[in-house]
Design goal:
It contains eight helices and five strands. By secondary structure, the protein is mainly α. It has one domain. It has a three-stranded mixed beta sheet, covered by helices on one side. A two-stranded antiparallel sheet has the order 2-3. Strand 2 and strand 3 form a beta hairpin. The protein is elongated and about 70 Å long.
Length: 212
Protein backbone atom coordinates (compact mmCIF):
# COMPACT_ATOMS: atom_id res chain seq x y z
CA UNK A 1 0.00 0.00 0.00
CA UNK A 2 1.32 3.41 -0.93
CA UNK A 3 1.55 6.46 1.29
CA UNK A 4 -1.45 8.73 1.81
CA UNK A 5 0.08 11.32 -0.51
CA UNK A 6 0.26 8.71 -3.28
CA UNK A 7 -3.46 8.00 -3.13
CA UNK A 8 -4.74 11.25 -4.62
CA UNK A 9 -2.93 11.60 -7.91
CA UNK A 10 -4.20 12.96 -11.20
CA UNK A 11 -5.21 9.92 -13.30
CA UNK A 12 -2.00 8.46 -14.71
CA UNK A 13 -3.56 6.15 -17.29
CA UNK A 14 -6.52 5.87 -19.60
CA UNK A 15 -8.26 3.32 -17.35
CA UNK A 16 -8.41 5.77 -14.44
CA UNK A 17 -9.52 8.63 -16.66
CA UNK A 18 -12.33 6.58 -18.17
CA UNK A 19 -13.58 5.55 -14.71
CA UNK A 20 -13.69 9.20 -13.65
CA UNK A 21 -15.65 10.06 -16.81
CA UNK A 22 -18.08 7.22 -16.15
CA UNK A 23 -18.40 8.23 -12.50
CA UNK A 24 -19.16 11.84 -13.32
CA UNK A 25 -21.66 10.73 -15.95
CA UNK A 26 -23.40 8.56 -13.34
CA UNK A 27 -23.59 11.53 -10.98
CA UNK A 28 -25.05 13.70 -13.72
CA UNK A 29 -27.65 11.02 -14.42
CA UNK A 30 -28.54 10.88 -10.71
CA UNK A 31 -28.57 14.70 -10.50
CA UNK A 32 -25.75 14.64 -7.93
CA UNK A 33 -22.46 16.64 -7.88
CA UNK A 34 -20.04 15.42 -10.59
CA UNK A 35 -16.84 17.05 -9.45
CA UNK A 36 -14.44 14.06 -9.18
CA UNK A 37 -11.05 14.95 -10.62
CA UNK A 38 -8.57 12.59 -8.94
CA UNK A 39 -8.50 8.86 -8.33
CA UNK A 40 -6.46 6.47 -6.19
CA UNK A 41 -6.18 2.72 -5.73
CA UNK A 42 -5.65 1.26 -2.25
CA UNK A 43 -6.90 -1.66 -0.19
CA UNK A 44 -6.73 0.16 3.13
CA UNK A 45 -6.57 3.70 4.51
CA UNK A 46 -5.88 3.95 8.24
CA UNK A 47 -8.58 1.86 9.95
CA UNK A 48 -10.79 1.39 6.88
CA UNK A 49 -10.38 -1.59 4.59
CA UNK A 50 -11.85 -1.26 1.10
CA UNK A 51 -13.95 -4.22 0.04
CA UNK A 52 -13.75 -5.51 -3.52
CA UNK A 53 -17.34 -4.50 -4.26
CA UNK A 54 -17.17 -0.91 -3.05
CA UNK A 55 -15.69 2.48 -3.91
CA UNK A 56 -15.58 5.81 -2.15
CA UNK A 57 -15.96 9.41 -3.31
CA UNK A 58 -15.25 12.53 -1.29
CA UNK A 59 -15.22 16.07 -2.74
CA UNK A 60 -12.84 15.81 -5.73
CA UNK A 61 -11.25 12.50 -4.74
CA UNK A 62 -12.21 8.90 -5.52
CA UNK A 63 -10.83 5.70 -4.01
CA UNK A 64 -11.14 2.18 -5.38
CA UNK A 65 -9.81 -1.16 -4.02
CA UNK A 66 -6.35 -1.76 -5.46
CA UNK A 67 -6.98 -5.50 -5.83
CA UNK A 68 -9.76 -4.68 -8.32
CA UNK A 69 -7.79 -2.46 -10.71
CA UNK A 70 -8.20 -3.77 -14.23
CA UNK A 71 -10.61 -6.55 -13.19
CA UNK A 72 -13.68 -4.53 -14.21
CA UNK A 73 -14.07 -2.43 -17.31
CA UNK A 74 -14.60 1.32 -16.72
CA UNK A 75 -18.31 1.01 -17.58
CA UNK A 76 -18.71 -1.93 -15.19
CA UNK A 77 -17.88 0.35 -12.29
CA UNK A 78 -21.00 2.44 -13.02
CA UNK A 79 -23.54 0.52 -10.87
CA UNK A 80 -21.10 0.34 -7.95
CA UNK A 81 -20.46 4.08 -8.22
CA UNK A 82 -24.20 4.76 -8.48
CA UNK A 83 -24.87 2.64 -5.37
CA UNK A 84 -22.26 4.46 -3.31
CA UNK A 85 -23.49 7.87 -4.38
CA UNK A 86 -27.10 6.95 -3.58
CA UNK A 87 -26.03 5.55 -0.20
CA UNK A 88 -24.18 8.79 0.49
CA UNK A 89 -27.32 10.73 -0.48
CA UNK A 90 -29.50 8.62 1.84
CA UNK A 91 -27.03 9.04 4.72
CA UNK A 92 -26.75 12.80 4.24
CA UNK A 93 -30.52 13.17 4.55
CA UNK A 94 -30.91 11.16 7.76
CA UNK A 95 -30.06 12.07 11.39
CA UNK A 96 -26.74 10.85 12.75
CA UNK A 97 -26.38 7.37 14.19
CA UNK A 98 -25.77 8.87 17.62
CA UNK A 99 -29.32 10.24 17.63
CA UNK A 100 -30.57 6.67 17.37
CA UNK A 101 -28.43 5.32 20.21
CA UNK A 102 -28.60 8.18 22.73
CA UNK A 103 -32.32 7.90 23.62
CA UNK A 104 -31.88 4.21 24.44
CA UNK A 105 -28.81 4.95 26.58
CA UNK A 106 -30.66 7.73 28.45
CA UNK A 107 -33.61 5.40 29.06
CA UNK A 108 -31.28 2.78 30.52
CA UNK A 109 -29.69 5.37 32.82
CA UNK A 110 -33.12 6.62 33.95
CA UNK A 111 -34.18 3.07 34.83
CA UNK A 112 -30.94 2.56 36.75
CA UNK A 113 -31.51 5.88 38.58
CA UNK A 114 -35.03 4.88 39.63
CA UNK A 115 -33.75 1.56 40.92
CA UNK A 116 -31.02 3.35 42.86
CA UNK A 117 -33.61 5.72 44.37
CA UNK A 118 -35.85 2.99 45.74
CA UNK A 119 -33.11 0.53 46.60
CA UNK A 120 -29.41 0.82 47.42
CA UNK A 121 -27.31 3.00 45.15
CA UNK A 122 -24.86 0.17 44.52
CA UNK A 123 -27.68 -2.06 43.31
CA UNK A 124 -28.85 0.66 40.91
CA UNK A 125 -25.36 1.09 39.48
CA UNK A 126 -24.91 -2.67 39.12
CA UNK A 127 -28.25 -3.16 37.40
CA UNK A 128 -27.58 -0.14 35.17
CA UNK A 129 -24.28 -1.63 34.03
CA UNK A 130 -25.96 -4.99 33.42
CA UNK A 131 -28.65 -3.30 31.33
CA UNK A 132 -25.99 -1.54 29.27
CA UNK A 133 -24.13 -4.82 28.73
CA UNK A 134 -27.31 -6.53 27.60
CA UNK A 135 -28.81 -3.65 25.62
CA UNK A 136 -25.54 -2.41 24.12
CA UNK A 137 -25.21 -5.21 21.53
CA UNK A 138 -28.92 -4.84 20.71
CA UNK A 139 -28.45 -1.11 20.06
CA UNK A 140 -25.35 -1.72 17.93
CA UNK A 141 -27.16 -4.42 15.95
CA UNK A 142 -30.06 -2.05 15.32
CA UNK A 143 -27.76 0.67 14.01
CA UNK A 144 -25.63 -1.60 11.81
CA UNK A 145 -28.63 -3.44 10.37
CA UNK A 146 -30.29 -0.11 9.65
CA UNK A 147 -27.20 1.01 7.75
CA UNK A 148 -27.05 -2.31 5.89
CA UNK A 149 -30.67 -1.83 4.88
CA UNK A 150 -29.77 1.61 3.52
CA UNK A 151 -26.92 0.10 1.49
CA UNK A 152 -29.30 -2.44 -0.03
CA UNK A 153 -31.80 0.33 -0.73
CA UNK A 154 -29.03 2.25 -2.50
CA UNK A 155 -28.39 -0.84 -4.65
CA UNK A 156 -32.04 -0.82 -5.76
CA UNK A 157 -31.87 2.86 -6.67
CA UNK A 158 -28.64 2.22 -8.59
CA UNK A 159 -30.25 -0.71 -10.41
CA UNK A 160 -33.12 1.52 -11.42
CA UNK A 161 -30.66 4.00 -12.91
CA UNK A 162 -28.10 1.63 -14.43
CA UNK A 163 -30.13 -1.54 -15.02
CA UNK A 164 -30.79 -4.53 -12.80
CA UNK A 165 -29.14 -7.12 -15.06
CA UNK A 166 -26.07 -4.93 -15.60
CA UNK A 167 -25.65 -4.57 -11.84
CA UNK A 168 -26.17 -8.30 -11.21
CA UNK A 169 -23.58 -9.11 -13.89
CA UNK A 170 -20.96 -6.96 -12.14
CA UNK A 171 -21.66 -8.37 -8.66
CA UNK A 172 -21.55 -11.97 -9.91
CA UNK A 173 -18.33 -11.23 -11.80
CA UNK A 174 -16.68 -9.94 -8.60
CA UNK A 175 -17.96 -13.00 -6.73
CA UNK A 176 -16.35 -15.31 -9.29
CA UNK A 177 -12.89 -13.83 -8.66
CA UNK A 178 -12.82 -15.61 -5.29
CA UNK A 179 -11.01 -12.76 -3.55
CA UNK A 180 -10.16 -13.26 0.12
CA UNK A 181 -12.20 -10.32 1.46
CA UNK A 182 -15.29 -11.54 -0.43
CA UNK A 183 -14.90 -15.08 0.92
CA UNK A 184 -14.39 -13.78 4.45
CA UNK A 185 -17.53 -11.65 4.27
CA UNK A 186 -19.56 -14.56 2.91
CA UNK A 187 -18.43 -16.82 5.78
CA UNK A 188 -19.51 -14.49 8.60
CA UNK A 189 -21.84 -15.98 11.19
CA UNK A 190 -22.80 -14.02 14.31
CA UNK A 191 -20.56 -11.10 13.31
CA UNK A 192 -22.81 -10.30 10.34
CA UNK A 193 -25.33 -8.87 12.84
CA UNK A 194 -22.77 -6.27 13.93
CA UNK A 195 -21.62 -5.26 10.46
CA UNK A 196 -23.26 -2.73 8.17
CA UNK A 197 -21.60 -4.35 5.13
CA UNK A 198 -23.90 -6.66 3.15
CA UNK A 199 -22.19 -9.63 1.54
CA UNK A 200 -22.20 -10.08 -2.22
CA UNK A 201 -24.74 -12.88 -1.81
CA UNK A 202 -27.04 -10.53 0.11
CA UNK A 203 -26.62 -7.82 -2.52
CA UNK A 204 -27.32 -10.23 -5.35
CA UNK A 205 -30.37 -11.72 -3.62
CA UNK A 206 -31.68 -8.23 -2.90
CA UNK A 207 -31.43 -7.29 -6.59
CA UNK A 208 -32.90 -10.58 -7.81
CA UNK A 209 -36.11 -9.78 -5.89
CA UNK A 210 -36.25 -6.28 -7.35
CA UNK A 211 -38.84 -5.56 -10.04
CA UNK A 212 -37.78 -2.56 -12.11
Amino acid sequence: MGSISDLFLVPSDRYDSEIICEGNDVCQKLKLPENVRTIGWCDRVLWHTFHSDECFFHTRKALFPARMKGRLGPKEWRPLIASFRMFWYIQSNLPGRGLVILPAVFLTLIVAGLIARFFEADIGVTIGLMLLLVDGPVFVNGVTQGKKSQRLQADLLAARAEGKEEFLFVLRKIQEFGLSDVIKTEKRHLSRHFSSKPSLTERIHNLELFNE
